[in-house]
Amino acid sequence: SPALLLLIALGFCCPGIHGQSLHIKVKSPKDITQLQEGQKLELECQTGREGGVSWIRQDRRGTLHFIVTINSMSKTTFSSDQRISPQRFEASKHNMSFRLAVNSFTPQDEGDYFCMTIYNQMMSFSPAQPAFLP
Q1: By C-alpha distance, which of 4, 9, 26 is closest to 125?
Q2: Which of 8, 12, 75, 122 could link 19 by a cystine bridge, Cβ 3.0 to 4.6 Å?
Q3: Does residue 19 surpass a pLDDT of 60?
């Protein structure tokens, strides 16, 4: 919805004022600068507390693309966008770590990846994790 996108955009402008810090690490490939088309990209977001997260991608034009929400019970809800499907993406939760995998990376998957959580009415974003083909 437009209201959600506005809130997300506001979160990107000022990440330091939104409470807890979220951390993303690249699980695969070992060197993100060597990402190749068709390769599996695995990201992990560590939140430091129980709850759920949403994964979002910002493309080169700055457009935000919702990918998936993983709730505290490990239930995943993917975007209704046909290009984002459980066949192309995998999402899972283990304790306070949330994993996102792009099964076969393509140019349309390029962008900055973020995880976002809302806790006690405070929205928190991870730093951007760039994922671009060489």
Answers
A1: 9
A2: 122
A3: no
